[in-house]
Fold each of these.
Amino acid sequence: MKVFIKYEILKNIYTFKFLLIFIILIILFLSSFYTMFKDYNERNKKYIEEKDKPETIAIPTYPLSIFVKGLEEEISSSFIIDQDLRIIWKTIPIEKLNLIFSIFPAPDLLFIVKIILSLIVLLFSFDSVSGEKENGTLQMILSNSFSRTNFLLGKFFALYITISIPFLYSFLMILTILAILIPLDTEMFIRIILFFLISELYLIFFLIVGMSVSILSKRSFTSLIILLFIWTTLVFVIPTFASLASDALSPLPSESYYRQAKQQHWVKLIFLSIHQYGNDSFENIQNVIEKSKKDEEELWKDYQLKLHKHLSVSEKISKISPAGIFQDLILSISSTGFDEYDRLKRWLILLKDLKEEGTQGSEFSRSSIETIINVDFVLNVFFIIALNSFLLLLSFILFSRADVRKL
Amino acid sequence: MIRDILKKELLENIFGFRFVFSFLIFTSIIFLVVFLRLEQYQKDLDDWKTRVNSQEEFLKKYAHYRRISAVAMPHLPPSKMEPIVSEIPVDLTKFRPVETLFDNPIKIMGKEADLIFVFFVIGSLVVIVLSYDSFSREKEMGTISLLFSNSIRRSTFTIGKIFGTFVTSSLPLLNSILIISILIAVRKDIGWRFLEWTSFFSIIVITFFYLLVFSVLSNAISILTKNSITSILTLLFIWIFFNLIIPNFSPFISEILFKTPTSSQINKLIEKIDEERDKELKKEFKKYVSEGYTDAQAWKMGDLEKINQKYLEKIYKIQRDFEIKVKVQLFLSKNLSCISPTASFIYATKELSGAGFSRINWVQNQFQSWKETALDYLEKKKEEMMRNNPNYTFDDFIDVSDGPRFFYKEQIFSDRIKNALPYILLILFYAVVFFYLSLILINRADVR
C-alpha cells in the first residue's frame, strides 16, 4: 500500500499538469493576497482617519477580511447618529462608488478555494480510475493480490497528498507574509487553522466525487464532462439560485420601502403634533420622538423578522450544495458574514438608544471564537464529514462490486 | 465541401452523449432562471407600486412645504428586462446621508443568477465541452493525415470544423430563445413591448458572437494540442482566466493603480473650507456691525454673499473632482476587465438591456430634471399660498396633487446600441483574432 501511494504521488507530481497547477496556485494566492491586503489597508486608513472624530462610530477592519472579504466593506464603515436619530453611513462603501465591484465577486481566498481549487481537484481526480481502465492497467493491478480497497485507498491518499502540496505551500507562504505584516494573536491563528481545515474537508468532498464518477465512467472524457456539470451546479447554480428562490419563497420588501415608511412616520407625527399643539416646541418634539420611536421599533421588528426568514430560506437552499455550507462556515470563522453584519446593526441600535439616554455604549468587537463554534457550526462541519464518509463508502461499494471483466 | 464537413460535424455531435447531456442541463437551467426571475420582477413591481401609491396617499394628507423633500422621492420602477438581465443598481442618494439599517445583505454579497450569468458560465463551458476535441480527436484517430492527403484544403476543413462545432453548440441557445419567448409571452402582465423584444433578440445575437469566440478558441487549442485531454485542460485554464480571474481582479488592480480619495477625506476638506468661510464671514460681519448695520442689512450689501459663493464654489469643485476621480477609476476597471471577452460580453448585454453603466447617468439626469421642476413648482406654490393666506406657515398643508411626478423613461434602442457598440466590437475582434489564429495554426501544422 505504502509503495502504491508513493508510486501514485510520484506519478502525479512528475506531470506537466501538476507543475502548471502549482505555478498557477502560487500566482493566484500571491496576487489575491496582494490585492486584498491593499484593499484592507485602504479600509484601515479610513478607520484611522475617522476613529478620533467626535460623534463618529468607526468600526476597525478585521485582518481576516484579507482572506474572506464578505460584508467587511459594510461592517468596517463609519457611522453617525444624526439629529433625527437616524444611523447613517459616513464613509461610503466602495461598492457604491466603483460599481464593477457589484458585478464581480472579490478574488479572496474563499473565492479561490470555493471555485478554482475545487475545479483543480476535479482535474486531478477525473481520470484516477477511468484512466487506469483506458490504459488497461486496472485489470492488471486487480489480477494481482492487491485488494480493491487498498487500490482505492491508495488512490485517495495519493491524490489528497498531491493536491495538498500546492495548497499547503501557497497557504503557508501567504500566512508567513501575513504574520510578518500584521501581528496575529492566538484567536486569529485558530481561525486561520480552522479556515485551512474546513477548506481541506471541502476539497476532499470534490476529490471523492471525482473518484466516484471516475469509477462509474468507462472513459476519462465522460468522467470529466459529468464532473464539470456537477461542479457548475454545485458551485455556481445552486448558490446563485438560492437568492432568487428565497426572493420568490420568502419575499423581503425593498430597502426603499422601509426607508420611505420610516420617513413617512416621522413627518406625519411632526405634522399632526404641530397641528394638535400649534407649535414645534421642545416638549412637542420630544413627544414626537417618543411616538416615532415606537413606530420605528415596530418597523425594525418587521424587517428583522422578514429578513431572517428570507436569509434562512436562502441559506437552506444554498446548503443543498457543499459550496454553500463551506461559504457559510468560512464567513462565520472570519466574522465577515451575515451574522456579524446583523450583530453590528443591533449594536448600532443599542448605541442609539443609549445616546438618547445620555449614556455611552461599549466598543463593537467581533464575535469570539467560542460564540462562532456553536451547535449550528458543529452540525455543518459534521455534515460535510458525514457526506464525505458516505461518498467514500459508496465509491468503495461501487468499486468492489464492479465486474473486473467489464472494467 | 464545407457543407459536407459541416454536416458530418453536426451529425457526429448531435447524436453524442455530451450534446444530449449539455442540451438538457442548459435548457433546464434557462427555464428555472427565467421562471424565478419573472417571479422576482413581479415582486419588485408590486413593491414599486406600493411605494408610489403610499407616497401619493401620504402627500394627499400630510404634504407641507417644510418637510416635503423628505417624503416626495423619485421611485424607479424595475427594469422590464429584469426577467432576463439583472440591472446595475442606481443609487440616487449616493452623495447624501443614507440610513444603513434596512439593506438586504444577500443583495450586497450574493450575485443573482440571470440569463447572462447562465450564458457566460454554462454556455461557454458547453461550447468548450462540445468542441475541445474537434481537431485533436482526428489526430488521435489518425484521420487528419488521411484527410489532408486528399484534395481537401486545410482552410476549408478548418472553417467546416469551426462552424460545425459552433452550430452544434448554438442549438441549446436556439432552444433557450424559444423557452424564454414562451415564458415571457405567456405572462401578459410583464408587458414586453417592441423595445424589449428588440433588446432581447440583440442580446441573443451578441451571445452567438460570444459563444463563437469560445468555439473558435477551442478549435485553435485543439489544433495546437496533440491529445484531447491536454486540449480540454488548457481550455479550462483559459476559461478560468477569462471568466473568473481577469474580471474579478480588475477593479482591485484599478484601485491600486488609480487611487481615489476616501469619502472621509473629502468630508474633512469640506469641513475645513466651511471653517475658513465662517471665519471670513465673521470678520466681515464685525466690520458691518461696527458701522451700525443689522445682520439683514449686512447680507443685503452683497459682499457676504460673494464670500459665501466663493467657498461654495470651492466645495462644489472638490465634490466634482471626487466624482471625476471615481469615474476614472470605474473607466480603468472596465477597460482592464475587457481583456476578457466575458467582461465585454457582460457589459454589452447589460447596455443592450438598458441596465448597464450608462443607465446611471441616464437615471440621474432624469432625476435632476424632475427635482428642478419640482422645486420650481414648490416655490410657486409657496408664493401662491402666501398670497392667498397671510397667516400661512411652512407647516401648513399644501395641495400638491397637480405637482410634477417622476416618470422614468427607458433608454431608447439606438442609445442602447451606441453604448454597447465598443464592447460588441471587442467581442467580434476576439472572434476574428482567434479564427485567424486557427487558420494560421492549421496551415503551419506538420501533418506528420
Amino acid sequence: MIPAAFDYRRAKTIDEALALIGETAEEARFLAGGHSLIPLMKLRFSQPDRLVDIMHVPGLAGIWERNGQVGIGATTRYVELERSRILQDVLPVVAEAAGEIGDPQVRHRGTIGGSLAHADPAADLPAVMVALDAFLDIVGPQGRRRVQAEDFFQGFFTVDLAEGELITEMRMLPRRTAAYAKLHQKASHFALVGVAAALEIEAGNGADGVCRGARVAVTGLSTHAQRLRGVEASLIGERLEEEVIRAAAERAPEGIEEVNDDLHGSAEYRREMAKVFAARAIRRAAARA
Amino acid sequence: MSEKVPVEVRVNGELRSAAVEPRLLLVHFLREELGLTGTHVGCDTSQCGACTVLIDGRSAKSCTVFAVQAAGSAVTTIEGLAEGEALHPIQEGFWEEHGLQCGYCTPGMIMAAASLLKENPDPSETEIRSGLDGNLCRCTGYQHIVNAIARAAQQG
C-alpha cells in the first residue's frame, strides 16, 4: 500500500515546526513516531500534503521531575516510558501501560504525544492520562495553552486540538498507588478494554488505609477514554476490602454510552470485562500503597 | 509536492544514498533501491513483523517507517548479520533448532530476536515469547523459533 504523495520537512525547533505547518494552505500534519499516522496514510484515510517531522526537535522528548510534578515530552517513545526509572519509581502505572502497548517494534517507534493526539478509542495511554488527571501543554499559532486530559478527549478520534496546534508535554503529579489492567485484542494488542485506576490511600496502613480519592478511567469500552464515576464514588471513604472492590467494579458500565460492539467483542462482553479489569486495576493500585 | 529528496542511510555499516520520494517506505527503499530483498513484505499493515529491521539498534517494522525518517540513522537488515561465511548465533540457532519451515517470517523473526538479545542477553522463555509479540509465523512453528533463540542466547 502506497500513501499519496506529500512533501516532507524536518523541524529543528518548535517554532520552526509551527511555521512549517502554518505556511502551507494545504493539509499538513506533524509526524512523530508515525505508528498511527502512517497506517492511515497507507490506507489513504489520511492524505496530508505535508508532513513535518518533529522527532529531531531537541527538548521535545524526555521524562523529568520538576516542582513536584512529572513531565513527559510529547515525542517520548513508549519504550522510554516503559524503562524510565523515574516513572517506575513515582508513576509505575505509566511504565506498566506503555509496556502493554502493541509489540516491541511498535514500542520502539510510537510516541505518547502521537497516541494522545490520534486518540484511538482502544489506545492505552488516554485512559492513564485521564486517571492521573494529567495536563497537556499545547502550543499553536495562538500561543500556549493547557488542557486537562479529561477535557482533551472528546469523542471518536476527536480531541481538543486545533489545526496547527502541537502537544509539547504532559504533566502530572506523582502517584505510586495507580495501576493499569488490560484485556488485549490478541492480534493488534489494542485494548478490548483497559482500566487505569489512580487511588489516594490514607498513609500508614498500607493497602488497609481508607481510600481518600479515586480516579478510574476506561479505554476500549466506548468512543474515547472516560472516567468511571460510579466506580470512583463507591471507593471513596472506604477501606479497599475485596467486597468493596467488587461492588465498586460492578458499577463500571454506569453512564457509558455508545459501547463498542464489533467482531472482537460484543457490547455485553466489553461491559462485563470492564468490571473484571476495573477490579484488577484497583487491586493492583491498592497493593502499591 | 512529490519531488525526490536525497536520503543518506547507513545500511549494514555502509553509507547508502539515493534520491527518493518522501512517501517511499523504508522496506521498499531496502528492497527496490538497494536490492536487499532479505527483508520481506508480509501483511503490509504493521502487524506480522516480516519486514522487521533494526533502526539504530532497535527493531522496527520497515513497512511503517518512511525512508526519509531513517535518514541519518543506522539500519541493519538480515543481510548485515553474518560475518562473511560465519552465521550469526541467531542464524545458527535457527539452523540447528529447525527454526524455519517456509522461511517467509524468518528474517523478521531473526531481527526481532537480535533486538531482544541485545537488550536482554539471557531471556527466559516467557521473555522470548513476549519479544516475538510483533511477529507472526503462519506455519505456526513458534516452539522451534523460541528454541532457536534460546540456543542463540546460550551460545552468545
